[in-house]
Design goal:
This protein has twelve helices and no strands.
C-alpha cells in the first residue's frame, strides 16, 4: 500500500511523522530510530541566496564554505541578492574565496535570476523533474544541487539527493552493505520510502553522523 502524500513543509513535527511512517515500512529505519532518535529539520529560505550557497559549498569543507559565505554576506550586505552579487568584480570575489569557475557559476545564476530566465518563485509549483531540469540547466548546478534546494528550501519530502556522499555512506551503514551504493542502487533501496525519500535522506545524514561513533 503506498504511503499517503506528505505535507509540503518539512518542519520538526512533519519530519518526525514522516520518519515514523518510514519506520513502518523499513525495519532498518525503525531499529535506527529506536537507537538514535529523530533528525532535526534543515529548513532554508527559498531564493537566490540559498541556491548560490549550495553551489559555493561544493567540493570544499564545511568550515571553508562557511567562511566564504560569511565574507560574501559582508560584501553583499544587507543581503545576498542577484543584483548585489553581479556588482562584485573579480578582485572582490577572489578576496571572498571564490575560484574562477565558481565566479562564473555564481554570475550565471545571478544573471538567470535577475533576468527571470530562472524563476525561483515558480519552482514551488513545478513538477519534480521540471524543477530539477530548470536548475540543472545552469552551469555548475547539477541534479544534486537541484535536489538539495528542493529538499531544504522548498520542503519537497520526496526529493532524494542519492548522489550525496554522506547519504550514500549512511545508506551503506543502515543496510549493512559491503560497498557504498551508487545512484542506481540508492534509488532502488529508497523506492519503498516514497513519497518520503527526502525525509529518508535527512535521516541518513543524521545516521551517518551518529554512525561515525560506531565500531567498525
Amino acid at each position: 500500500m503506498p504511503l499517503p502524500i506528505a505535507r509540503p513543509r518539512l518542519d520538526g513535527p512533519t519530519l518526525a511523522a514522516a520518519i515514523d511512517r518510514l519506520a513502518g515500512v523499513d525495519p532498518d529505519i525503525a531499529a535506527a530510530v529506536e537507537r538514535i532518535g529523530y533528525p532535526l529539520p534543515r529548513l532554508r529560505e527559498p531564493g537566490f541566496a540559498t541556491l548560490l550557497r549550495i553551489m559555493v559549498a561544493q567540493q570544499v569543507s564545511t568550515r571553508a564554505a562557511a567562511a566564504i559565505w560569511d565574507r560574501l554576506e559582508l560584501a553583499c550586505a544587507p543581503l545576498v541578492s542577484a543584483e548585489r552579487f553581479l556588482a562584485l568584480d573579480d578582485a572582490a570575489l577572489r578576496a571572498i574565496g571564490l575560484s574562477r569557475r565558481k565566479m562564473e557559476y555564481g554570475r550565471g545564476l545571478a544573471e538567470a535570476v535577475a533576468g527571470r530566465v530562472l524563476d525561483l518563485d515558480a519552482l514551488a509549483d513545478q513538477a519534480e523533474e521540471a524543477a530539477i531540469a530548470a536548475i540543472s540547466a545552469l552551469r555548475g548546478f547539477g541534479r544534486w544541487s537541484a535536489e538539495i534546494y528542493l529538499l531544504f528550501a522548498l520542503g519537497r519530502t520526496d526529493s532524494f539527493p542519492g548522489d550525496d556522499l554522506a547519504v550514500q555512506i549512511g545508506m551503506q551503514r543502515l543496510k549493512g552493505l559491503p560497498a557504498r551504493p551508487d545512484r542506481r542502487r540508492m534509488d532502488a533501496l529508497a523506492e519503498p520510502w516514497r513519497p518520503y525519500r527526502g525525509c529518508g535522506a535527512l535521516f541518513l545524514w543524521y545516521y551517518y553522523g551518529a554512525a561515525t561513533l560506531d565500531p567498525r
